[in-house]
Amino acid sequence: MSKQYETVIGLEVHVELATRTKIFCGCSTAFGGAPNTHTCPVCTGMPGSLPVLNKQVVEYAAAVGLATNCTITQYCKFDRKNYFYPDNPQNYQISQLYLPICRNGHVEIDVDGRKKNVRIHEIHMEEDAGKLVHDPSTGNSLVDFNRSGVPLIEIVSEPDMRSAEEVIAYLEKLRMIIQYLGASDCKLQEGSMRADVNLSVREVGAEEFGTRTEMKNLNSFSAIARAIEGEMERQIDLIEDGKKVVQETRRWDDDKEYSYPMRSKEDAQDYRYFPEPDLTPIVISDEWLDEIRSRQPEFRDEKQARYKEQFGLPEYDINIITEDKTLTDLFESCIELGAAAKEVSNWIMGDIMRLLKEKEMEASDIHFSPANLVKMIQMIESGAINRKVAKKVFEAIFDEDVDPEVYVEENGLKTVNDEGALRKVIEEIVANNPKSVEDYKAGKKKAMGFFVGQTMRAMKGKADPAMVNQILKEMLD
Amino acid sequence: MGLMDYTAVELGKKIKAGEVSVLEAANAAMDAIDALEDKFNCYVTVQERAAVQAKAEELQKKIDDGTLTGPLAGVPVAVKDNMCTKGTRTTCSSKILENFEPAYTAEAVLNLEKAGALIIGKTNMDEFAMGSTTETSHYGVTKNPWNAEHVPGGSSGGSAAAVAAGECSYALGSDTGGSIRQPASYCGIVGMKPTYGTVSRYGLIAYGSSLDQIGPMAKDVTDCATILETIASHDPKDSTSVKREDYDFTSALTDDVKGMRIGIPRDYMGEGLDEEVKAAVLDAAKKLEEKGAIVEEFDLSLVQYAIPAYYVIASAEASSNLARFDGVKYGYRTESYEGLHNMYKKTRSEGFGPEVKRRIMLGSFVLSSGYYDAYYLKALRTKALIKQAFDKAFAKYDVILGPAAPTTAPKLGESLSDPIKMYLGDIYTISVNLAGLPGISVPGSLDSKGLPIGIQFIGDCFKEKNIIRAAYAFEQSREFTNWSLSGKEEK
């Protein structure tokens, strides 16, 4: 490759909003459920049914807009996007084209210490489609409308990103903001956050953009990174070979690490957008906007500063805790319940991070109640359990959200601080290991560890370590 | 005089007074249907007599025990076949919905049911309300009871003819560009299109969503006001539904137009208007003047742009509204097909009639990229200008008076051969929909062929009471009063 190329990337990010009910009807948005059980005449496109806008959708969309420095369109409208597909019960999608709710925003990203603004062209509200299920036994395709009408926002960036790292940083930033707002859980695997990548390449220094392609079916951050690398190489190869990049939509196959053309610009559909006549324009008054603004949460930057100031935690800990809304919420709930910040932070940094990794879970999958963690910390402090036992108790909390008191009781894990009983066990161990006693007396301090270990084993880990040490010293010295 | 000669309110009073039972009323309606349906074909679906009788008994009990006290309790009504009725097929007079049974009932119909109405059937219409003659129905042509060689008008032609023929006491219609008022005019009955947003559209199978409005079709103005009072409501399920303070439409039934300012648009009285219709309008003006109204002519302007603007907007919305009829979820699906797109294509080609296809194509065209600004956006601007022209007029007048249609009912088959001519027939009704206004058509007199002529009163938004007052006063002053067809010689 003789020439230097630059990759130009813009993103269209779809986010499912965490409203309890759908965007235009009262049906549940709950994920899963038997097919077509969360449906009604509206979200199945029955003749004569009419949409009624869920106000919460507007509030979430505006909140995301405010958090991404957008101008809120205080008089906005819905439009119909017309296309035929069986997962789309009306054969049109209610979306926004002409007056989207948010425009002209930006977020700041940080890649290896380099800060950069990615501009947001617009954010609009729309409804999700149903799901097609292929039935291999009959060869028929079936439609499940449970997802039909689940509210989405689409966040359209300007073509401001230049590398996969910037794209990931941008997506992580968006995800964090949206999770902090509680507007979505933003799970790529479950499809509650989806990104389409628009990518073109050009020679470094060129003024004009190259011809772009749009890549779909990207289900994880790593798949996005691989797709960007793959598409960039494909386009550069074409240009180097003197061929042209075709403007088209491509589908990324992450197993084969290759993308396939879905449709070209020539057969791009004419969506025949026009204003949705069944919905009246949305007027967001100054008062309403102020109300939404006043409910904005403390975002990551503000939290980081406060944690440092208020709790004196190390920057590293703060970064990890604030990186995910679930962890932040967990941390703050524990503090509120009376636990010490450093202690909670240690559990997050240590056992929680370890378990997440071991179990290949996302932080947002954590489901235990902060109260149980706090109760366990208090049991350590009161000496009811020792730290070693606590690790075991915590795993049970993490997995099954057990009440630590009940769990410790049922499993007989309570620390033994009955001095008489302990003394008896230690006497026996000392008597049975004359060689180690000699070693200890000869100055081999390691032998002490041997005796502690033996004692703990005999006590099944439940002995109070301080007491064990004290008794051993008395006997040996 | 038979039971079906009474107005809905008269029959309701007799039922309430115990002079007539609901069962007798039901049987009278079913007898009339049995006797006349072969001739006029007003209905797509008639309820089973036994089911109607059972319902009649049920209503009678509720009337007797005082649960139902409204003026329409027990009175037989017909509903246009584009309003969803749970458990009763709703076809929009289209093949594509020939076996479609809705899972829910339209809000306006529910309101009728709450008032104790006895629903006896679903009336014929132009397919998906597209047409002005009720000749585009998949279920046969409806004929004008005044002269069966003529059309009843459309698209609510089945409802209009059923009321005129006495096959029901009153009916619901829907009006997108004149579909209540024009057939009312052709069939010698009263038909009213309320202000957009007054009656819920929930469950009305949409044609042109921004223009569609359900309204009453009945024997006189009193019935219309009473029915409107029953069906109008603020419905949270319809975002375009309006919460009003003045649902007491019957309070405007006073024979008093003293000082009422009435304007006649010169634009409505010129070229294209049949001389006999013109004379009837001027006669109505004279009658109202004699009662103390102040009548003058004025220039409304922009009238010639209403039809093109309407056909662009209504067709655009229809092209999208009718997209859901695709053979996937309900209704007709073609018998054999290869793959999804072929299924769509064959289902829709076979399921829709030519007028519907014409409007879907027209609507798709005006929305397509590159034409949107030139057609759709321009039509929307025209719509806004037309509204302004009316606003200006209503600053001066309480009511606008004019014809409902340029002529009386044409002969069967005359209109479809020349769709443009048929479209032009909507000239006096269409702008009312574009501006969202209320309008009412009241029979004025008969022409030399013995066909009814309708007089239209148009009011400002939410001023139904003005037009009810004017229409009622005019109704009381008419010279020709025998609008009942029962027992009349066949033409």
Automatic annotation (TrEMBL), chain A:
Residue ranges occupied by any Asn/Gln amidotransferase domain in the UniProt entry? 329-476
Supply the EC number(s).
Answer: 6.3.5.-
Enumerate the catalysed reactions. L-aspartyl-tRNA(Asn) + L-glutamine + ATP + H2O = L-asparaginyl-tRNA(Asn) + L-glutamate + ADP + phosphate + 2 H(+); L-glutamyl-tRNA(Gln) + L-glutamine + ATP + H2O = L-glutaminyl-tRNA(Gln) + L-glutamate + ADP + phosphate + H(+)
Q: Which domain of life is it from?
A: Bacteria
GO molecular function terms attached to this record: asparaginyl-tRNA synthase (glutamine-hydrolyzing) activity; ATP binding; glutaminyl-tRNA synthase (glutamine-hydrolyzing) activity; transferase activity
Q: Which UniProt keywords apply?
A: ATP-binding, Ligase, Nucleotide-binding, Protein biosynthesis, Transferase
Top EC class for this record = ligase
Q: What does this protein do?
A: Allows the formation of correctly charged Asn-tRNA(Asn) or Gln-tRNA(Gln) through the transamidation of misacylated Asp-tRNA(Asn) or Glu-tRNA(Gln) in organisms which lack either or both of asparaginyl-tRNA or glutaminyl-tRNA synthetases. The reaction takes place in the presence of glutamine and ATP through an activated phospho-Asp-tRNA(Asn) or phospho-Glu-tRNA(Gln).
This protein is called what?
A: Aspartyl/glutamyl-tRNA(Asn/Gln) amidotransferase subunit B
Question: What is the organism lineage in this UniProt record?
Answer: Bacteria, Bacillati, Bacillota, Clostridia, Lachnospirales
UniProtKB/TrEMBL annotation, chain B:
The record's family statement is: Belongs to the amidase family. GatA subfamily.
GO cellular component, alphabetical, reads: glutamyl-tRNA(Gln) amidotransferase complex
HAMAP family (alphabetical): GatA (MF_00120)
Q: What does this protein do?
A: Allows the formation of correctly charged Gln-tRNA(Gln) through the transamidation of misacylated Glu-tRNA(Gln) in organisms which lack glutaminyl-tRNA synthetase. The reaction takes place in the presence of glutamine and ATP through an activated gamma-phospho-Glu-tRNA(Gln).
Cited InterPro entries:
Amidase, Amidase_CS, Amidase_dom, AS_sf, GatA
Q: Name one GO molecular function term.
A: ATP binding
Q: Which residues does the Swiss-Prot or TrEMBL record annotate as the active site?
A: K80 (charge relay system), S155 (charge relay system), S179 (acyl-ester intermediate)
- Give the EC number(s) under which this enzyme is classified: 6.3.5.7
NCBIfam families linked to this entry: gatA
Record-linked PANTHER family? GLUTAMYL-TRNA(GLN) AMIDOTRANSFERASE SUBUNIT A (PTHR11895:SF151), TRANSAMIDASE (PTHR11895)
One GO-annotated biological process of the protein: translation
The organism encoding this protein is Anaerobutyricum hallii DSM 3353
Q: Which UniProt keywords apply?
A: ATP-binding, Ligase, Nucleotide-binding, Protein biosynthesis, Transferase
> Whom does it interact with, and what assembly results?
Heterotrimer of A, B and C subunits.
Amidase domain: which residues?
Answer: 25-467
Q: Which reaction does it catalyse?
A: L-glutamyl-tRNA(Gln) + L-glutamine + ATP + H2O = L-glutaminyl-tRNA(Gln) + L-glutamate + ADP + phosphate + H(+)
* Name the UniProt record assigns to this protein: Glutamyl-tRNA(Gln) amidotransferase subunit A
